[in-house]
Amino acid sequence: MKKKLLVLLGFIAGTLLLFFYLNTDSLHEKLVKSSNEINELTPIKLDRFTTLENTDIEGKTMIYNYKISKVNAADIDITTFCATATDELIKRDCKNEELSELLNDGIKFKHAYRDESGTPIATIKLDKSDCFGK
What we know:
By secondary structure, the chain is α+β, with helices and mostly antiparallel strands. The chain has helices spanning 2-21, 27-39, 78-95, 97-104, 128-131, and strands spanning 44-45, 50-58, 61-68, 108-115, 120-126. Helix 1 (2-21) packs antiparallel against helix 2 and helix 1 (2-21) packs across helix 4 (97-104).
């Protein structure tokens, strides 16, 4: 399952990179195209609890919208969830060459988590400063 997730994340990163560097459209248009490409693949089950539902764009920010199944937002220790998820996202995104290049170019990532009923759990934002020195 982990290998499948890494392959999928590599594909997503590659898709983003292709649109940024091989296309002459504006940055916003490139983000929109990348988001649309990813959305054609969604929903994507990432693990037994987490599903990437879709992506969206706000300015220079790519937003990943996740659904966490089998839990209610009220039952989650938000501090622990955010700390754990942030650490994992930083490890993954900052060490991924394609994603770190995008971060260096000023692209930001926002990971928004909701429970099955749609109640927000947490939103984690990553930008270039999160990878600096990591």
